[in-house]
Prior knowledge:
It contains two helices and no strands. By secondary structure, the chain is mostly helical.
Amino acid sequence: xxxxxxxxxxxxxxxxxxxxxxxxxxxxxxxxxxxxxxxxxxxxxxxxxxxxxxxxxxxxxxxxxxxxxxxxxxx
Length: 75
């Protein structure tokens, strides 16, 4: 894949992470909590917050370890 000016750049692919499935599971439990009761609401909310927190931590680590662009482009 090449850019409009002819320079070839590698495609940025995120590292594998368990955070999106954790977040999805938390949202699912939260939705079940609407039907089944407050235990699932609380459990789903806690798992959802854990999923968001781990995703943000993963993202912050990836940002701090990412190499600086050599062409002056901003991400």
